[in-house]
Amino acid sequence: MSTQASMKTKNTMEKGFIYLILAVAAILSIFPFYWMFVMATNHNSVINSVPPAFIPGAELVANFKNVINTIDFFGAMWNSLLVSTITTIGVLFLCSLAGFAFAKLKFKGKNFLFIAILVTMMIPPQLGLIPQYIIVTKLDWLNDLKAIIFPGLIDAFGIFWMRQYISSNVPDELVDAAKIDGCTNFRVYWNIAIPVIIPAFATLAIIRFMYIWNDFLWPLVVLREESSYTIQVALRGLIDNYVRDNGMIMSGTFWATVPLIIIFLLLNRLFISSLTEGAVKS
């Protein structure tokens, strides 16, 4: 009995230690968002005081009014939402289609093409800035959201992620059986692969949506007019060379982050499911 009691106590202590670590990690992860919210609700003088305030203030509405008076916040948010949504949907479809082809179809040069796609992941995106700009200029897409949408419709990491997930979660026997029944390759992809890879869709959607939403360099290069600005480019207009209103800047940044939090919360369960799929698979 004493041995069982000691083992039970040990297990309880181990669980308590794990929960403590998780609680500390959660606090450290949430604190930047909390601090951003605190700054967004306080006056600039309070933010610059020593020590700074650690509790929310009463300037949230006033700071946000300053934001919308300074930049076209809602227009930029709509542009970012439009670009991120269309690009994410395109990436999910095209990358899963390519991933299915690399995982389940047999064709000449498949391995070489897949390796070539992986090699592109090693190339810094800044190296493609000038060629992409020349192409966009030739297509007359400057100051147009198409200049951001179309280059982002395919993603090397997305192809790799989908190929690996489909290879391990869609049985070859199921694909062969569907083909024997007369299914085309696209129907096998649409009716058999897609229902299985929904968790992988959620993971890739979160990653790609956040990347497009937070992208600053490429939109800054191709978008020149305020009406076409995405939110990250528009937020740059909150920074004044002479007077820096941190409350206003943090207010704009906070509200620009809210859509990302909503997307993550909506897809959180599927995201966790995709990460734990291999751990619970027998």
UniProtKB/TrEMBL annotation:
Pfam families: BPD_transp_1. The keyword Transcription does not apply. It is found in: Cell membrane. This is Carbohydrate ABC transporter membrane protein 2, CUT1 family (TC 3.A.1.1.-). InterPro entries: MetI-like, MetI-like_sf. One of its GO terms (cellular component) is plasma membrane. Belongs to the binding-protein-dependent transport system permease family. Keywords: Cell membrane, Membrane, Transmembrane, Transmembrane helix, Transport. PANTHER family: ABC TRANSPORTER PERMEASE PROTEIN MG189-RELATED, ABC TRANSPORTER PERMEASE PROTEIN MG189-RELATED-RELATED. It is a multi-pass membrane protein. It comes from Gracilibacillus orientalis. The chain crosses the membrane at residues 16-37, 81-103, 112-135, 147-167, 188-213, 248-267. GO terms for biological process: transmembrane transport. Residues 77-267 form the ABC transmembrane type-1 domain. The lineage of its organism: Bacteria, Bacillati, Bacillota, Bacilli, Bacillales.
